[in-house]
Design a protein that fits this description.
The structure is a homodimer.
Chain A (H helix, E strand, L loop, with lengths): L13 H9 L2 H19 L4 H14 L10 H19 L7 H15 L3 H9 L25 E6 L11 E6 L3 H6 L5 E2 H7 L1 H18 L3 E8 L2 E9 L4 H13 L5 H7 L2 H8 L2 E2 L1 H6 L2 E4 L1 E4 L2 E7 L2 H7 L5 E5 L7 H6 L2 E4 L7 H9 L3 E3 L5 E3 L4 E6 L2 E6 L3 E5 L4 E4 L4 E2 L6 H14 L3 E5 L3 H9 L5 E5 H5 L5 H9 L3 H25 L4 E5 L12 H10 L5 H10 L10 H15 L11 H6 L1 H20 L5 E6 L5 H21 L8 E6 L2 H5 L1 H7 L2 E4 L1 H9 L3 H13 L16 H15 L4 E4 L7 H9 L4 E4 L4 H14 L10
Parallel strand pairs in A: 9-10, 10-11, 11-12, 19-20, 19-26, 20-21, 21-22, 22-23, 23-24, 24-25, 25-26
Antiparallel strand pairs in A: 1-2, 1-4, 2-3, 4-5, 6-18, 7-17, 8-12, 9-16, 13-14, 14-15, 16-17
Amino acid sequence: MMDTILNLGLNDQTVKTLEARSNNPRFAYDCYRRFIQMYGNVVLEVPKPDFDDVFDGQKKKAKAKLDTELTAEDLKQVIAGYKKLIEKKTGKPFPQDAMDQLQGARDAVFGSWFNARAIHYRKMNQIPDDLGTAVNVQAMVFGNLGETSATGVGFTRNPATGEKAFYGEFLENAQGEDVVSGVRTPRPFSELLKWNPAVYNQLRENTTMLEKHYRDIQDFEFTVQDGKLYMLQTRNGKRTGPAAVRIAVEMVSEGLISKQEAILRVDPQQLDQLLHPVLDPASKKSLAKLATGLPASPGAAVGTIVFTADDAVEKAKLAPVILVRKETVPDDIHGMEVAKGILTSRGGMTSHAAVVCRGMGTPCVAGAEGITVDEHKKEVGVTAGGKALILKEGDWLSLDGSTGEVFGGKANTLDADPSSGVLKSFMEWADEFRGKFGVRANADIPRDAKAARRFGAEGIGLCRTEHMFFAEDRIPHMQAMILARDEKTRRKALAKLLPMQRRDFAGLFEAMNGFPVVIRTLDPPLHEFLPKREDLMVDNAILPYADIKKKRELAATYQRFGAEVKNLKTVLAGLLKRVEELHEFNPMLGHRGCRLGITYPEITEMQARAVFEAVVQVAKKGVKVIPEVMIPLIGGVKEFENQKKIVVQVAEEVLGKAGRKDLKYLVGTMIEIPRAALTAGDVAKEADFFSFGTNDLTQTTMGLSRDDYTKFQKDYEDRKIFANDPFAVLDQEGVGQLVKMAVERGRKSNPKLEIGICGEHGGEPSSVQFCYRVGMDYVSCSPYRVPIARLAAAQAAISGDKSETQRTA
Amino acid sequence: MMDTILNLGLNDQTVKTLEARSNNPRFAYDCYRRFIQMYGNVVLEVPKPDFDDVFDGQKKKAKAKLDTELTAEDLKQVIAGYKKLIEKKTGKPFPQDAMDQLQGARDAVFGSWFNARAIHYRKMNQIPDDLGTAVNVQAMVFGNLGETSATGVGFTRNPATGEKAFYGEFLENAQGEDVVSGVRTPRPFSELLKWNPAVYNQLRENTTMLEKHYRDIQDFEFTVQDGKLYMLQTRNGKRTGPAAVRIAVEMVSEGLISKQEAILRVDPQQLDQLLHPVLDPASKKSLAKLATGLPASPGAAVGTIVFTADDAVEKAKLAPVILVRKETVPDDIHGMEVAKGILTSRGGMTSHAAVVCRGMGTPCVAGAEGITVDEHKKEVGVTAGGKALILKEGDWLSLDGSTGEVFGGKANTLDADPSSGVLKSFMEWADEFRGKFGVRANADIPRDAKAARRFGAEGIGLCRTEHMFFAEDRIPHMQAMILARDEKTRRKALAKLLPMQRRDFAGLFEAMNGFPVVIRTLDPPLHEFLPKREDLMVDNAILPYADIKKKRELAATYQRFGAEVKNLKTVLAGLLKRVEELHEFNPMLGHRGCRLGITYPEITEMQARAVFEAVVQVAKKGVKVIPEVMIPLIGGVKEFENQKKIVVQVAEEVLGKAGRKDLKYLVGTMIEIPRAALTAGDVAKEADFFSFGTNDLTQTTMGLSRDDYTKFQKDYEDRKIFANDPFAVLDQEGVGQLVKMAVERGRKSNPKLEIGICGEHGGEPSSVQFCYRVGMDYVSCSPYRVPIARLAAAQAAISGDKSETQRTA
């Protein structure tokens, strides 16, 4: 259990030899000091703070700020203090005999197997108690015994690019610490060849052998003592995403590893680095870092600041823009579409901004709590180097959506190459192993659908039809529909939306020729399409005091609702009244999803009509259309039956009228509230497919609002209450139980049931593997995560622990 | 399957005989008309609307508004039309031969067993297909064959009071319909004795025999034809709550039924009628009904209207008050406490007003959507007899919380007698059968705890500590705690709350001497204790325009936060800032419950200290104290462990310091979010008890906010999507699965685990029976529902299907 390396054998005698040989008395005594401290602490169990007291006391005495300012003489004082401390605490002097030291260390290691922490650790990790531990005893070598000695570190391949090149650094007359500390500048391997060709060649030979043995890139350390090479350590090297893919692919062609191994070698998350442009590291160094938020959507973005969606549209015509908001709302969508990147001061990894940006592949830094956004003044307050600073509209900003960093000024970006030859073959292998397990994309508009296809998506797993309603030409009709007081007026407004929605669907079907398209009926609560209640309350309250300028401003704001200066009072009061009626305490648990379609069947009817009219229209062109209509937020079979009936009625009518009853379609449902999972057996008797909405399923199963969780996320993560952000990584222990249950019960009562996932988790590797294991047919995620999901699925397939609960047809 | 009674045998011939004998030609032809219609519809399957067309046509022709205005001649026309219709539809004339009629009817009854509706019904109700149906053929008698004939209905006991009295009405020379239609006024049985003593005595003898046979109160119908008594029908009689109890108890003493049967005879819901005062039915008839809302908390309330909690406190000193609000909030608690009743225009059966009122036993009508409340103008708009009406502060109002009716003016009320001798013995029997299965009450203050004891509660199952913080002397400290920017300031405010909270707990412990008291740590989100965000936004927005009067008003409103006219801007802006920080999108799923105690451990610490200091203090007086500290809203064992550690630390310290380590206590948790139920096995390893918070468990399992559900509740109930309001009756199919799972997993890993329920369902009979069946130890409900729960539990025990999952110690 104790994996400390103790360099034994130093004592009052040997330290003098070391001092003489190394020509560096400070180094010798610092080695001795460190050794005594570590031995005292680990073997003799003297608390570390006691040693620190001695050391800090000496620093104070010597008026040294840095440890390195202590001279050899100072260190001798420290050593004396350490020895006194040990004698006081243990009753015995620090052992001078190397054999005594060795026995003490050996026994301490063996003894550590039985300490409370180790026993607890084994219990937690289910490691058997009788496994035992080992002690390695090995002679020490020194790289600092003069000009024929040296030390160094290296890699068998370039860990940044993956290029097969012998790569590393060394320092003559030095120990490992000198390389790491940065006091001296190490020299590249090209110079090692000149310094000692024999050593160079032997090192190259050794490490090539090690790489062959371990069948992976090696990260090694070595020391040369008096011209003789000693290998100190070797391990598999850490690498970047691009390097991981290149190394894996090249090792297959070198015959070192199998394709399966290559697939398992790359962390799916790392693929992200190959799919987005990145900020030039040089730029990052030269610019001032203004804040760090959550890395909500990866990639680099550089542009000028705008504060509103309308400004974004306007200014984007002249220069790239970064939209800076407290938080984004669906109403901002037109601004988000033109922005190069989004920065918000509120919201988490699954806030509106984050979700939408990941879907669009737009970089986003969310919840940057260090900044203060004033959307009215069009200012953002930041801190640079401890100083408060105000940025205004038009100032340049650079975002790193992969790290959450925000920089002032204009950085350079480096493009990624997603279709590079190496990545292409790698993904082809992944798809080979993944087999029938599908990867679809969440996409709402034809543009996203096309991107999804480019990334290898095999269909659309979630089209959120409401996103279409936020577009500028549609929202007035949507609002008219919501403000309608009777079905007739509602139907009139819906009739205007029908051709637009039909056009959208037709675009998706064309892009997905031959692949399925899952279309979800209207999901969000209706008040999301209207002005905010609190804004209306404020505007109503100040109206009696407003001067003509303010009135004109208000009239402009509410123009869409027929507001003019003279009728402001009536319009605002009427709007507020309707918004108050629609106001909800917990909108996430409110009048939304299928509940809307049950109250207003005409909405579902219009959407179904748009779907099937688009189906007929596109099929006429010879495109293969596979529509799957999905009902959201059901809690049991009765809600599903209610909505399915409407969809089937419309489908039969539209297809019948067109003489295309040959066209097949599915009607299925989201499983996104616990009750739907618990009653999945009944639901599956009626549903053609399930799609797990794990965002909402996580919210309801954990009783946790993803928008509000950010408030105490830190408290929970610091205390290790959640191992991961449950909105990023599926909570297999809790939410996963319901998913598993629903899959099993659903398949049991309907063996043909098609099952997938369309929550954010559908693009997270460990969650994708979970989905594979429980027997789903596919995952669906944002287009830019499709390759990640393809890889994760392939890895799950290779690991080979697929569930018994398989679809039978 | 067909339970229609067909009076066969009438034809063109016999109708003339009937006409002659009954001296009422209109009656004879109306009988014939009805018979043809029913026979035509049921046996010959001619749709009823077709008959209606004929009938309505004749009414139009005769210019008759009421059916009874049609003469015998008119009815002959109708009969002719019916016959023509039947011949047209079936190709055959209406059968005149009685044997033909009988065979047709017999075959229709047997045939009905196989129609689609019957097959579906059997499938739904799991009735075997081979059971078959029966046909009764019986001679017809007539009560309208002159002065020696009569007809009547009666009860063997008084169905309103339960008194053992022969009770009924009759009419001479009449048929059943004449009694029911109200055209003639029936005569009491006392006159039947005079009219025909032999019939009276025989009827009395017959019905006494029937009551003995069926061992229950009989509701019977009879006819006397030419002085001879015929019994037409008998069935068990419907009865009021008080009657049900009295009949059950008296039948036991009469030796008619066993105690078990007596217990099963009373619908637990009916007990409610014995526990609250009721509006005098005479008053209800004389006053104008203004609205009908939800019967949110039973009982009658009469008082003068007030619109704010402060006004309630003020005006209640002079006259009884009814608090009328759009919705109540925790801040209204002081007004709710003094009000005789509460009326709200928004919110459902589990809205704040409803829950609090049921807890306090205050009548409440909630969600009366027909009224419009203007709290600023202090007016409520209602509709009386189709006319709009404005009521103002001080106007009298009468509420029936058991029916949801709202009357204008001052009604009389009738007191209930909960300690009546009959009820007392009845409840004693119930408790006998209930055995060890406990019934506790939800109570937050000593007054409620005392009421709970009176109603037979065996402990407090839920004390919501936050309710204590809303009291006027406490909320300023609570607010100071929330506004604090650091732990030190927070602790200072908490220190002021400590003695108050300790006093409250001491009061509860004293009231519950020897019974357990479950105390829940702080649960609601902190913003509930501060002014509403939207109010602050409005006040901030209008501040620049406010004149001195308005400023003084605002200063008064925010006085508690140190507001004066001169510093209004700073105070309001500061408050808004903090409220914005605390603002949540879905407060139900936000920073509340144990999540607060995890972020601010000092709150849990203070509450634990108050609990255990009160324990020591009360125990000193010789009172037996059984404290159970309950952690709300956990999603897994880690949150519980975190909070338990704090509670145990404080408990050990306080009890240790007092030398009272002998005092025992439990630390347990609510199971109110699905993840807690799913991981109950792990949680139970650490928890001493579970208490199901089925309000929140229903909200999360169904993804349904109870406050927002009211918006579409009607749509869901009309379409039979939910069989019951899931917040009133536990959803056994969905939520129940999680409850059962948690009980089983909890008991498996901790056989000593104490398990109860403290959600609203703990007082709903079918839910109580569910709790009994799954093996809980107790239910807890509002004090006034304790007798209902005791009875429901007794019934479950007698039905005898208790689960295997029992507590072992």
